[in-house]
């Protein structure tokens, strides 16, 4: 499981005294633990749920880096981006624009989605196929463009 691999990598980072990787992995594991105990009862997260948590952590780091850059704190922004890079290794490869376009076209054709009224169901179907390999805003814009056109 992915969570087990993160724990193993955290131990290895601690042994080699890699402070950056240790910090990033600890925060990721804390996010995973928080997600596991949220809800009515604690449970073990599957790999897809762990990937969602990691994607959220990566996005959070990117947003923090942008905020630090806007505040003229380049060294802190670089640190956030470095932590993002440590976590991004565990995420699946992102889809290229062409691959995403083809996937959106395929899903919309398979589901018979047309018109803006189908935006919600179309987004749900596309999001399942994309599975965190593309930014939600980009996917939404692409689906909206195809349904409107």
Put the structure in a nutshell.
This protein has 149 residues and is mainly α. The protein has helices at 2-15, 19-37, 47-70, 74-88, 97-111, 119-130, 136-148.
Which parts are unreliable, with pLDDT below 50 for 5 consecutive residues or more?
A: none
> What does the overall shape look like?
globular
N-to-C SSE string, H for helix and E for strand? HHHHHHH
Secondary structure category: mainly alpha
Distance between the terminal alpha carbons, to the nearest Å?
42 Å
Q: Do you know the CATH architecture of the largest domain?
A: Orthogonal Bundle
Query: What is Rg?
Result: 18 Å
CATH class of the largest domain, named Mainly Alpha
According to CATH, the fold-level topology of the largest domain is: Hypothetical Protein Yqey, Chain: A, domain1
Helix content: over 70%
Number of structural domains:
2
CATH homologous superfamily annotation of the largest domain: Uncharacterised protein YqeY/AIM41, N-terminal domain
Largest sheet: none
Number of helices: 7
The averaged pLDDT comes out at: 91
Can you tag this structure with a few keywords?
75% helix, Hypothetical Protein Yqey, Chain: A, domain1, Arc Repressor Mutant, subunit A, 2 domains
């Amino acid at each position: 499981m992915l969570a087990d691999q993160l724990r193993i990598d955290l131990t290895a980072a601690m042994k080699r005294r890699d402070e950056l990787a240790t910090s990033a992995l600890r925060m990721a594991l804390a996010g995973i633990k928080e997600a596991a105990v949220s809800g009515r009862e604690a449970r073990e997260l599957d790999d897809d749920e762990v990937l969602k948590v990691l994607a959220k952590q990566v996005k959070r780091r990117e947003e923090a880096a942008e905020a630090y850059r806007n505040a003229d704190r380049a060294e802190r922004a670089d640190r956030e981006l470095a932590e993002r890079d440590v976590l991004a290794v565990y995420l699946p490869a992102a889809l290229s624009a062409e691959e995403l376009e083809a996937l959106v076209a395929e899903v919309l054709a398979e589901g018979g989605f047309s018109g803006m009224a189908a935006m919600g169901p179309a987004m749900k179907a596309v999001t399942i196929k994309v599975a965190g390999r593309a930014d939600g805003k980009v996917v939404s814009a692409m689906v909206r463009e195809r349904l409107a056109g």
